[in-house]
Amino acid sequence: MPTVDARPGPFAFDPDTTALLVIDMQRDFLLPGGFGESLGNDVAELRRTIGPLTALISAWRTAGLPIIHTREGHLPDLSDCPPAKLRRGPMIGQKGTFGRILIRGEYGHDIIDELRPEPGEVVIDKPGKGAFYATELSATLEKLGTRQLVVTGVTTEVCVHTTVREANDRGFECLVLADCVGSYFPEFQQAGLEMIAAQGGIFGWVAESPALLKEIA
Ligand code: TIU
């Protein structure tokens, strides 16, 4: 079985039952001048993931393995946005540089050009931070026969963490790629990765993408 050099120890995986999850690589979070930057964040902290992710996705496609993309966002009437989320995110649904912020169908809500999904790749629209809550992700993974997930995307301590925790509780083994996940806050990036692999891999494994690329080349 291919085995990746990871923390806290080797991550062995069966390519036939492993899927790549690319979380929320959306213009609203990553583009200069967008929603993320308007909140005072440095998008460069997220944009450094684009290069490694481009290489990984390309290799994953060549290997013929499944890729699932997610997007955080809401229906235009915000009926799927809990009032509690809206109270702490009053910009959701407002007009931003790239259309209504985090609204499905708007330019800013979609995935950045560099990582555009190819036909046949699943795109999961999610109203929450976790990719399992109120989505078809569980059913999709069951249909694929997936047991292990390679997790990438943004942001490390928010949507990546929530999704990995959800996945771990559902029995999936998750490998998080440090160079393919990003946080606006360097200290959260470091702590977020440490939390995953701590205590013997309390809810996953952490590796760098070249260690995985070697195994699927
Ligand atoms: N995708 C994701 O993490 N959504 C967020 O709201 N992240 C923040 O860091 N705000």
From TrEMBL:
Keywords: Hydrolase. Pfam families: Isochorismatase (PF00857). Gene3D superfamilies: Isochorismatase-like. It comes from the Bacteria. CDD domains: cysteine_hydrolases. One of its GO terms (molecular function) is hydrolase activity. Residues 18-202 form the Isochorismatase-like domain. The keyword Hydrolase applies. The keyword Nucleus does not apply. InterPro entries: Isochorismatase-like_dom, Isochorismatase-like_hydrls, Isochorismatase-like_sf. PANTHER family: FAMILY HYDROLASE, PUTATIVE (AFU_ORTHOLOGUE AFUA_2G08700)-RELATED, PEROXYUREIDOACRYLATE/UREIDOACRYLATE AMIDOHYDROLASE-RELATED. This is Nicotinamidase-related amidase. It comes from Actinoplanes xinjiangensis.
